[in-house]
Amino acid sequence: MHDHDHHDHDHHHDNRYSDMQARVKALEMVLTEKGLIDPAAIDAIVETYETKIGPRNGAHVVAKAWTDPDFADWLKRDATAAIASLGYAGRQGEHMRAVFNTPETHNLVVCTLCSCYPWAVLGLPPVWYKAPAYRSRAVIDPRGILAEFGLQLADTKKIRVWDSTAELRYLVIPEQPADSDGLTEEALAALVSRDAMIGTAIVELSR
Amino acid sequence: MNGPHDLGGQMGFGLVAPETDEPYFHAEWEKRALGLTLSCGAFGAWTIDESRHARENIPPADYLAASYYEIWTRALEVLLERHGFATREEVDAGVMQIEPAVPKRVLKADMVAGVLAKGGPCDRSIGTEPFFKPGDRVRTRNFNPETHTRLPRYARAKSGIVEAVQGSFVFPDDNAHSKGESPQWVYTVVFDATEIWGEGADPTLTVSIDAWESYLERV
């Protein structure tokens, strides 16, 4: 009758969100009544991915690779073990591969079939990574996509797109920015964005 | 199956819309949907491959209009009903009507850290040697099963080069349909964009997939 909701925040998908809110709540209620789920476990899962498992994990891996050639070699040979040595393993990080950007080649990761993503090092994927626009075009027009992220690569630069069709999860190791050799591992890690580890950005000294 | 999920090369979805400082969740229900999906996965009643197939079976118009957590939730409802944990009527009402099937385990809060840290590795030892080796030229098979597969349409009947042997893994095309794990060797196969997209393709672009051995034929 009244449109008082009109003034509420973030309601551009109002109907779908309110419908899903009810749907998911009903699902949780009935499964809890049946003793099949523990709502506190859901809280613990959410808390883990909000506070413990995110792109800082991957940035640590990248900075370590930049500062420790032996680690970089290990990462190339056995990324799962090298990454696990820093404490990052488990769900959607069971079978890791690290792909290194070079002056000749830029790497970009996608999952055209669903939303495969290296959770153990990057956390939960952003909405755009799971949405049709990115999944459809990454394999046919990656330069167009990179331009939408504000990244213009030289025309001569090769682009390699990795479609995550199996259970291997890919982490892009960006090129280390010039003139950053004197920085500590921590300072370097702070430069590395999530998008640079998917391949939709590069790492620059002054961001 | 040639479902709405198989998006590589489709057109008309517009620009990618990255958000600045994107939050992990855009609504409270998304948090619960994530936790419910992982909690119910812990029942041990279905595999990740079966859950992927349940998602790609969502009717195309619904799939393409849904956010990803909605896709997960719709598929979860199907899996819960199929495996005897909750009927659609129960979910609609939010009230229990039947005794559920007995899960292998119920995920409690104190188990979460261990379960997430363990993950679900799907590499499996097999007795055979890999049929292909790095450098081999191969052609992907041309098939259009109504069942689950991880060979995308854009990469069918295409010639490429085996770049790496990645190990032996559970075969999703069987595992999604309760036909067993049937592990096979998996290879990274790289294609020139001109082979995939033909005229007008970006000459600097190569695309790779990870392909199970039975997806490939020697050229």
Short description:
Chain A has 207 residues and is mostly helical.
Folded structure, characterized:
Chain A has 207 residues and is mainly alpha-helical. Chain A is 46% helix and 11% strand. Chain A folds into two domains: 9-50, no CATH class; 54-198, Nitrile hydratase alpha /Thiocyanate hydrolase gamma (Nitrile Hydratase, Chain A). Chain A is globular, with a radius of gyration of 20 Å. Chain B is of the alpha+beta class. Chain B folds into two domains: 28-118, Nitrile hydratase, beta subunit (Cyclin A, domain 1); 137-218, SH3 type barrels (Roll), CATH 2.30.30. Chain B is built from eight helices and five strands. In chain B, helix 1 runs parallel beside helix 4 and helix 2 packs across helix 4 (68-82). The mean pLDDT of chain B is 97. Chains A and B meet through helix 1, helix 2, helix 7, helix 8 and helix 9 of A and helix 1, helix 2, helix 4, helix 5 and helix 6 of B.
Q: Would you count the extended β strands of chain A for me?
A: 4
Stretches with pLDDT under 50, minimum 5 residues of chain B? none
Distance between the ends of chain A: 49 Å
Q: What is the mean pLDDT of chain A?
A: 92
* Share of residues in strands of chain A: 5-15%
The number of domains of chain B is 2
Shape of chain A: globular
Order of helices and strands of chain B: HHHHHHEEHEHEE
Taking strands numbered 1, 2, ... along the chain, how are they ordered across the largest sheet of chain B? 4-3-2-1-5
**What is the mean pLDDT of chain B?**
97
The CATH topology of the largest domain in chain B comes to Cyclin A, domain 1
The rounded Rg of chain B comes to 20 Å
Q: How far is it from the N-terminal to the C-terminal residue of chain B, by CA?
A: 25 Å
CATH superfamily of the largest domain in chain B: Nitrile hydratase, beta subunit
- What is the CATH first-level class name of the largest domain in chain B? Mainly Alpha
| Helix amount of chain A | 40-55%
Structural class of chain B: alpha+beta
Largest interface: A-B, 83 and 97 residues
What fraction of residues of chain B sit in β-strands?
15-25%
Largest sheet: number of strands, sense, barrel closure of chain B: 5 strands, antiparallel
DSSP strand tally of chain B: 5
Enzyme class (chain B): lyase
Function (chain B): NHase catalyzes the hydration of various nitrile compounds to the corresponding amides.
Protein name (chain B): Nitrile hydratase subunit beta
Family (chain B): Belongs to the nitrile hydratase subunit beta family.
